[in-house]
Specification:
This protein is α+β, with helices and mostly antiparallel strands. About 15% of the residues lie in helices and about 30% in strands. Strands 25, 26, 27, 28, 29, 30, 31, 32, 33, 34 and 35 form an eleven-stranded mixed sheet that branches. It has a ten-stranded mixed sheet with strand order 13-14-16-15-17-18-21-22-23-24, sandwiched between helices. A five-stranded antiparallel sheet has the order 4-5-6-7-8. Strand 4 and strand 5 form a beta hairpin. Helix 3 runs parallel beside helix 4. The longest helix has 13 residues.
Length: about 700
């Protein structure tokens, strides 16, 4: 597969000398004020000094009298004596005013701003320079796989597009100058803070012969009406797509988006007008209940934090943590926030996967739209994104015909595309979403070809990508470890995780108090977590058995590199003295110095022990020994030879999920907590174990 990484554009033929005195190296202590020349009402600034301070390399070829300014994405070549300029990402010659003084090249300040992504500020006889905030976004398009260069002048304008009820939505159009028609990328969202990025993408698309249109949801970013999360996105999306489909300058449409903007894309998938030829959706769960709750416990770091930030003005991290533990949760908005939030109580008050709430209205429309999509679709999912489970369900719900012309990419990212497993290395993890979106649309809507199909997954630890013939993942082996009560040589606070079943039956017990939950240290279903550190991903964990309610088991060192592929499963035999409770685990890799980093987490409550996707069944009798088969989300991860596997068992994972109160019933409606005495059974007729699916990747 082709990884969307920024490629080096300078060929070996551009190894240039520095012989030309006009480009003599500046002093390391050069000030950040640059001299300004003004001639014929043109303001000139020094080329080399500013470019090098901004991180570009600047080389001179004496033979051709050419200066080359480059980064790892593009290059600009200037011949000052001939007064000619070329830019690698622009088709044809580029006009640029330039002059020379004291054997130095000066260029028009607008040249830096237009072609080198620098913001130049002139104050009298001096200037300052800073890199443009949008430089990296522009570079992702400049480094696209199809080497599509800038060829077009563009125009920008705004339209207030009327919806079916008369509300008008602010819609921004970038398109090449001319009659067209043009292939057009379209996205809808509620976030005004993304406008600078959207404007940059609009310019870059339009300069390459494609139109780019973005629209704000009602009540946001200059659109009329009242914003109520999720509710109007289907009707407004259909009306907006139909408006765009009717425009004479539109040849074809590719709709795209990340997170909420993926929701607005997915939810119209069954009502695409004839000009829609492709979709590109990233990091959003089409089965919404999967990102709201798990086994009756609410994903508060997703739902509660997002609601506080986007539907109130009350958000702070500490206040969010307080809110996430408030009981009863269904009234936290009125009781604690002082602001009723439409929809919040409904989201947290329907823990059953099968509840009618998730099959009607917005969420029913979202779920039902996927199977009717008939255009090529790219899906991006992150191993440590809180929408990961629901994102891969988007792939599973596509028809076989649509899957055959679609592409799914599973990488080691969080919801913000931050790399989450850096401690395992990673030079090749990047798969830039802006580049991939542009290339997907350009290939389909301009070249008439689907560029990639199937599933590509990043292998953590190998820093490589594997193409999967089928999905869900099919492993070709497995490794089972059994819990024991033998001490382990690696850590005196942990028990041995053995490849042999314990000869004698035994138990390990601990006390779980919902008022003092175990805090999440590394999470896979987290959105906000904390600004410092970011808990989303694989992070260093506390030592084994660091709390009395955390029971740890550690294996011997692995003899060889072992690739885990699929859902990791813990089969735990347990009992408790309450009628309902939760059991959680973290499976981690322990390196040579004893530091553990989480691979995957798991969670299950007694009420959902028979089927987490069915209704809760409150039939547990205190003291009864039951088996809990707890399955993690899938991953592809290579454990290094010499490292160990560790599993930590507990009963809470806050704030990734709400604390189980140890009482029976819907968590959102509960008002009190109990302390639970938990027991794990080991060996004999209750062989608690962990099964790790493995995959032989070959050469």
């Amino acid at each position: 597969m082709r990884k969307r990484i920024l490629s080096l554009l300078l060929a070996s033929t551009l190894s240039l000398s520095l012989a030309f005195p006009a480009l003599a190296a500046e002093s390391d202590t050069a000030p950040r004020l640059y001299p300004v020349l003004t001639e014929s009402e043109i303001t000139y600034v020094p080329l080399r000094a500013i470019a090098e301070d901004l991180g570009f390399s600047v080389d001179w070829d004496q033979a051709t009298q050419t200066a080359t300014v480059s980064n790892n994405v593009y290059f600009v070549q200037i011949q000052p004596l001939r007064k000619t300029t070329s830019v690698s990402y622009v088709e044809g010659a580029v006009s640029a005013a330039m002059t020379m003084k004291d054997d130095r090249i000066y260029v028009d300040q607008s040249f830096f701003e237009q072609y080198l992504d620098a913001d130049i500020t002139v104050n009298g006889a001096s200037a300052t320079a800073a890199a443009s905030s949008m430089a990296s976004t522009r570079n992702t398009i400049r480094a696209n796989d199809y080497d599509v260069k800038e060829t077009c002048a563009y125009e920008k304008y705004e339209v207030m597009v009327p919806m079916d009820d008369g509300v008008k939505l602010r819609t921004v159009v970038y398109k090449p100058v001319g009659d067209g028609p043009w292939p057009t990328a379209f996205t809808r969202g509620p976030y005004p803070n993304q406008e600078e990025t959207k404007n940059t993408l609009g310019e870059e698309y339009a300069k390459r012969g494609m139109a780019y249109v973005y629209q704000y949801c009602r009540g946001k970013g200059g659109s009329e009406g009242e914003y109520v999360a999720n509710v109007d996105e289907r009707a407004d999306g259909i009306a907006s797509l139909n408006w765009l489909n009717d425009q004479d300058w539109v040849k074809s449409i590719g709709m795209h988006g990340h997170s909420y903007l993926a929701l607005t894309t997915w939810i119209v998938g069954d009502s695409l007008p004839d000009k829609v030829e492709a979709l590109h959706v990233q990091c959003y769960g089409v089965l919404r209940n999967l990102s709201v709750s798990h086994s009756g416990l609410v994903a508060v770091d997703n739902i509660t934090a997002w609601t506080l930030q986007n539907c109130t003005d009350k958000y702070s991290y500490d206040f969010y943590l307080e809110s996430a533990q408030y009981l009863p949760q269904i009234s936290v908005d009125t009781d604690l926030w002082g602001t009723p939030v439409e929809g919040y109580a409904d989201w947290v008050n329907h823990p059953d996967f099968t509840d009618d709430y998730w099959n009607e209205g917005v969420w029913g429309d979202l779920k039902n739209a996927i199977g009717k999509i008939d255009v090529p679709t790219t899906i991006f999912g992150g191993y440590y994104d809180h929408h990961f489970e629901g994102t891969i369900e988007g792939w599973n719900l596509l028809s076989d015909e649509t899957k055959a012309k679609s592409h799914m990419v599973l990488g080691s990212w969080n919801h913000s595309f931050g790399y989450t497993t850096g401690w395992k290395g990673g030079d090749n993890y990047a798969y830039d979403v802006n580049t991939d979106t542009f290339n997907w649309f350009y290939s389909i809507m301009v070249n008439g070809k689907v560029p990639a199909t199937g599933v590509d997954a990043y292998v953590v630890g190998d820093d490589a990508w594997v193409h999967l013939d089928s999905f869900p993942l099919k492993n070709d082996g497995e490794r089972t470890y059994y819990l024991t009560t033998e001490p382990t040589e690696s850590d005196g606070t942990a028990y041995l995780l053995s490849d042999r079943q314990a000869e004698h039956a035994d138990t390990v017990s601990y006390v779980y108090d919902p008022a003092a939950p175990k805090r999440t240290e590394g999470g896979e279903c987290m959105l906000y977590s904390s600004s410092s550190p970011d808990l989303r991903g694989s992070n260093p964990l506390s030592p084994a058995g660091y709390r009395s309610d955390v029971i740890s088991f550690v294996s011997d060192p692995l003899a060889e590199d072992t690739t885990l592929a699929g859902n990791l499963v813990a089969n735990l035999f347990v009992s408790t003295d309450v009628e309902d409770t939760a059991f959680t685990y973290t499976i981690s890799e322990v390196d040579a110095d004893g530091t553990a980093h989480n691979i995957r987490n798991g969670l299950l409550t007694l009420a959902y022990r028979n089927d987490r996707y069915a209704q809760a069944v409150y039939d547990y009798v205190p003291g009864q020994v039951v088996e809990m088969e707890i399955e993690s989300l899938p991953i592809v991860w290579t454990v290094s030879a010499g490292n160990r596997i560790r599993i930590d068992i507990s009963s809470s994972d806050f704030p990734e999920f709400s604390n189980h109160t140890n009482t029976v019933g819907n968590w959102a409606e509960q008002t009190e907590t109990k302390i639970a005495n938990q027991t794990i059974y080991i060996g004999g007729e209750y062989p608690s174990s962990v099964t790790l699916p493995t995959l032989s990747l070959g050469a």
